[in-house]
Amino acid sequence: MLKAKVILVALGAALVVPAAMAGSTPEEDRKEAVEYFKQMFPDVPYKEYVNGQYALDEDRRSQWESLQDFPPYEFAVAEGKEMFETPFANGKTYASCFENGGVGVRQNYPYFDEKNNEVITLELAINRCRQANGEEPLKYKKGDIASISAYMASTSQGKNFNIQVPDNPQAQAAYQAGKEFYYSRRGQLNFSCASCHVQNPGNWIRADLLSPALGQPSNFPVHRSKWGELGTLHRRFAGCNRNVRAEPLPAQSTEYRNLEYFLTYMSNGLPVVGPSTRP
What is the pLDDT of residues 115-136, one digit of tens each? Predict the structure, then answer.
């Protein structure tokens, strides 16, 4: 652990904040981000960013592709489908809460709810559906909610993210708050999300090859070897905060939902490929 800390501190001391994602509108941010990574990795096709570190390292990609023959999340997706289709006590199902019966909608999450002025993620919508139908909410980081979310993601595979930031002060503020969180340094190591995933993708921290920011939400939920199970994007946010010795926030907190809003908007135009596997 000490070794990892030393390497992280050494990286942090050398980092300079890039000009990427410094536009005056969300779409300018996204275009600048795409151009930034295009210059950083000129040989990586845009669509490959959904594969994270495997778009950057041929050897790791080969190992990862062999794992896809028997993906470890298959049973969880099947369980998620069964739970999704099983009626609640009142006879309704999750399909009653979502557009198109919840099939092929992952690419539209998170969205900004202009009625209640908040970001709605897919996992939050799943739990609010449960509560609206008299059921107890599920825990947000893993287990049943990850399986249901994975099944719903699987029905959107190949559909491009199409996150909208309405011309609404509250929506713009939520986006900006997520962007500010992404670039804000925190924790004992004084690292931001951008320190690793904007400034240092393609570099190693111990056995971890850092992935670029573009395309990261496309994979979730993911089955991580480290976890031995599926986990949600907010579980990963909390893990990253711990890695830099910062206090993690609760899953589905306003801060993490805004962060997901910003990060997913950056992936607009890239397809949903989740669930997937990661180290």
Answer: 999 999 999 999 999 999 999 9
Count the Cβ atoms, other than its own, within 10 Å of residue 263.
Answer: 24
Radius of gyration of the chain (CA): 18
Long-range contact pairs involving 196-201 (C-beta distance under 8 Å, separation at least 24): 196/240, 198/18, 198/20, 198/21, 198/36, 199/15, 199/16, 199/17, 199/18, 200/11, 200/15, 201/37, 201/40, 201/41, 201/56
Q: What is the pLDDT of residue 21?
A: 59
Looking only at the bridges linking them, the beta strands covering 222-224 and 276-278 are parallel
Q: Strand 118-120 vs strand 111-113: parallel, antiparallel, or unpaired?
A: antiparallel
Look at residue 191 and give its three-state secondary structure.
strand
Given a contact cutoff of 8 angstroms between Cβ atoms, the answer to whether 137 and 131 are in contact is yes
Measured distance CA(104)–CA(64) in Å, rounded: 26
CB 26 within 8 A of CB 266: no
Q: How far apart are CA 118 and CA 124, in angstroms?
A: 11
Which residues belong to the active site?
240
Determine how β-strand 222-224 pairs with β-strand 229-231: antiparallel
Backbone angles phi, psi at 11, to 5 degrees: -65, -45
